[in-house]
Design goal:
Strand content: 15-25%
Strand order of the largest sheet: 4-3-5-12-6
Number of strands: 12
Shape: globular
Helix content: 40-55%
Structural class: alpha/beta
Length: 286
């Protein structure tokens, strides 16, 4: 009986979650041709096609859908075992800084796993805006950092890329004519710049109807129905959904987040960074 190579399964999972070979290549740090070769190896092991053409894209076959369930379970057990053996004797303090986008989504599940496998490590969690967190990281206060990306960094261990989406209050009718009301964070903010740039280029009239220094304030503004905003699928939740297609809003770029690890970080910090790099890219738009 052949054993599944975890590297092949990680690539397969990256494709399934990103929806394209290009996304999988970026997620695992390989070329598109290498990704194609890995998928062919996996198909040879399974003995059935896992991907099928769908227009210009590819989609999972029934066999691919079945393998996806097993791949997630295998990688979860593999990751749990690796962390358990590596983290049992680790101790000390570890500081993680991240934006609210991740703190409100699947980060807690990953931190729960890390805490279970590193019971002696004290985790200091800082949640805030990218600019303030980056300043603390540069001062050596934070060991592992997840913030909106401003460009390549020598200590960057992963690039987390997710589609930006236009979001509005659930069930609210589309604003009728006139200027489009938008809600944004106080500057500097990459989402704010992306939203206004896209609207300006499209010649779409808009006005800033609400501003906030925090995501909780932004969420309240959107849920109230007074404005729409641009975020990722991580922001979708109670009272917030995709903006109506009737608005004919311009396409937004991907939001890029940088996962950075402090130079000369200890082994516990390195393991947490690896865990986050593998586990966080799990939110995607429809």
């Amino acid at each position: 009986m052949q054993a599944f190579d975890p590297d092949l399964l990680r690539t397969f999972l990256a494709f399934a979650e990103g929806g394209s070979l290009a996304h999988a290549a970026a997620a695992v740090g390989r070329t598109a041709s290498a990704i194609t070769a890995q998928m062919q190896r996996l198909e040879n092991m399974v003995g059935e096609p896992l991907l099928a053409p769908s227009g210009r894209r590819r989609m999972l076959t029934p066999a691919g859908e079945e393998l996806l369930v097993h791949a997630r379970r295998i990688l979860e057990v593999h990751r749990d075992a690796w962390l358990s053996f590596k983290g049992a004797k680790a101790d000390g303090r570890l500081a993680l800084g991240c934006t609210q986008d991740f703190a409100d989504s699947n980060l807690p599940d990953l931190l729960r796993l890390f805490a279970r496998t590193h019971p002696r490590v004290r985790l200091d969690l800082r949640v805030g805006r990218s600019r303030e967190l980056t300043a603390a990281y540069d001062q050596g206060v934070i060991d592992v950092l997840i913030v909106m990306r401003e460009g390549p960094q020598p200590d960057e261990v992963a690039l987390l890329s997710e589609p930006m989406l236009w979001l509005s209050a659930s069930g609210e009718p589309a604003p009728a004519g006139g200027e489009l009301p938008i809600a944004v964070l106080d500057p500097p903010c990459g989402f704010r710049s992306a939203a206004t740039d896209a609207l300006d280029k499209a010649g779409h009239s808009y006005r800033i109807a609400a501003t906030s220094p925090s995501l909780s304030g932004l969420r309240a503004a959107v849920r109230s129905g007074i404005a729409i905003t641009a975020r990722t699928a991580r922001f979708i939740g109670e009272g917030i959904a995709l903006a109506p297609q009737a608005l004919s809003l311009p396409t937004l770029p991907n939001a890029e987040f940088s996962l950075r690890l402090k130079p000369k970080a200890d082994k516990a910090a390195s393991r947490l960074a690896t865990l986050l790099a593998e586990g966080l890219p799990g939110e995607s738009g429809p």
